Amino acid sequence: MLYKNRISEKGQTIVLVVISVMVMVVMAALVVDGGNLYMHRRQAQTAADAAALAAAYEYCVNHGTLADANAKAVEYATVQNNGTALADLDGDDANSIQILLDAENRSVSVEVEITQPTFFAKILGVPEETVRADATADCLIPGGLEGNIAPIAWTCRPPVGGTVGPDCGINKIPYEVWQELDGNPLYGFDYGTHILDLGDGVDPASYMTDLSGVNDEGKALYIVMDTDKFDETTDCDLYGGPIDCDFDNDGEIDIAAGGNRGWLYLEGNASDLDNIMNDGTEDVVPKNKWFPGKPGSDDVVIATAHDNKIGDIVLIPIFDKICETNDFYNDCDYVSPPDTVWEWTGLYTYYHIVDFGAFVITCVYDNVHDSCPGRTYAGLGKKDANTIEGYFLDGYVANGLNGPGDDMGVYVLSLTK
User: What span, in angstroms and rounded, lies between the C-alpha atoms of 13 and 197?
Assistant: First the structure.
């Protein structure tokens, strides 16, 4: 009898041991494989965010095709961030597209999968685990920008033969092309010597066919002149004057001076112009806001640009209306909404900001240092006003808020999911 009881006890012990082992395996699976599952989910989300942003950038900023955007998403999801694959959100088995594109809103959605073998869970018949994460990125027209904003107001000129349109008649060099020109010594582009041509928008070499500026075949250059004494109707060769003001030969003036250019009081007071030129703005500068400023000269801003900003990309506010007054609401073309105003007491020139342009500063003449190639090309002498010269860029991503407006080549990329 005693022998039978001992056998029964041994059987119960074996059962308890087996149950305990199974519980331990389950607990280990929960701890180890559950921890891995959480880690892989975070990894999948990182990959999805990167893939969505890269695809939106490719489609919106680089003007790539749907296939180009999809390829970028696959690259950033798998190669760059170790995802296993993109889920097919496109829903069309006949093509190789996995992303979901909303072309009208320039929005890209992706879903990333990561599949990994389990460690303890395979004992329970679960050999692998798959996690998924989705993300949506939008490429947005800015409603306001912050950061490296220059206190320069640039006029929005209509294209030749038309009204003010989405491009404001400004020639722009693609940002990706500029990076190649600026960073590749093989091209030999020198800020202080060369002037870039109107290229084809793709090949950097197409912008460098006449670097010395000998031929009058159209240049991509623009000049900001630090004076309100410049009069295009008498000074520019389009009207019989001595200065070549139309670098791209489109019949529009490419030198901003006088009423076509102003120094903007974007923050604080008038004495902050040089600080803003050097450091940009702390707050968002919104569109459809009237800012006070002045059309005259400012040697301190020019000196700051010369000493600290050559080679930098700054964001230039673009205006479409100007008003000089000490009674803003009665004298100016103020429409609320959407307009707002930073009104100051006294007589000021107000500029209505409608957009932003990305502008790379390549040379600054401050009446002390040697001349710049754009000045030489235009026929400006050493006794003429100080100047800032450079090129507008297309496809530049900045920090700010999204909003309505025209496409001036500056974008805000944002994850919306």
Answer: 88
